[in-house]
Amino acid sequence: KNQVEQSPQSLIILEGKNCTLQCNYTVSPFSNLRWYKQDTGRGPVSLTIMTFSENTKSNGRYTATLDADTKQSSLHITASQLSDSASYICVVSARKRGSNYQLIWGAGTKLIIKP
Amino acid sequence: NAGVTQTPKFQVLKTGQSMTLQCAQDMNHEYMSWYRQDPGMGLRLIHYSVGAGITDQGEVPNGYNVSRSTTEDFPLRLLSAAPSQTSVYFCASARRDRGFQETQYFGPGTRLLVL
Description:
The complex is a heterodimer of chains A (115) and B (115). By secondary structure, chain A is mostly beta strands. Chain A is built from no helices and 11 strands. Chain A has strands spanning 3-7, 10-14, 19-26, 30-38, 45-51, 56-59, 62-67, 72-77, 86-95, 101-105, 109-114. In chain A, a hairpin with a 4-residue loop joins strand 7 and strand 8. Chain B has strands at 4-7, 10-13, 19-25, 31-37, 44-51, 54-57, 64-66, 76-78, 87-94, 105-106, 110-114. In chain B, strands 2, 4, 5, 6, 9, 10 and 11 form a 7-stranded mixed sheet that branches. In chain B, strands 1-3-8-7 form a 4-stranded antiparallel sheet, with no helix packed on it. The N and C termini of chain B lie far apart (36 Å). The A-B interface holds A 4, 31-32, 34, 41-46, 49, 89, 91, 93, 99-108 and B 4, 40-45, 90, 92, 98-101, 103-104, 106-109.
């Protein structure tokens, strides 16, 4: 069964500190992996997308990594800011027959940045 | 561009009542979809559409209907509301070029409480 698991469920860090969020998946056949940021009361917003051949993708202070062999991804946030407080969701795309795809969503990691 | 808009923002229903959640996008995206988000779970796909006049079921379609008469609009109808449908509902749109490979743009969500 295709699954995406994220850890930790929640995380509290002080402003200015770095943190790393984890995503493990069992999805086949793998197409790509996305990280979304979801602010409280809002819809998710895409941060990065990585295909099978990409190991690292950066978006400002956000850096995502992908290890397709171990089926793991991480999202590293550098020099955290109060505005980084949000849920971060890992989404893996599985290729289906023809040109169709299935998106498997993780439950997200809730990140709280304290001043 | 307004992007993806959803109305209403909040709604309280009694069991058995019906209602329509509205979704509109002004980006001329072919793909539109409806998700529900429940605590501790990833987003689950309810219905989706690959273009005007074409709809299909997602992962959890029971109790919901959709139609797509125009490219812009994709309403979600609850036929007979049940407490299990208490959730936050998100509408999303994407360009069709590579199906769900394309980044989805989400609306702000509709919070629904069924008593």
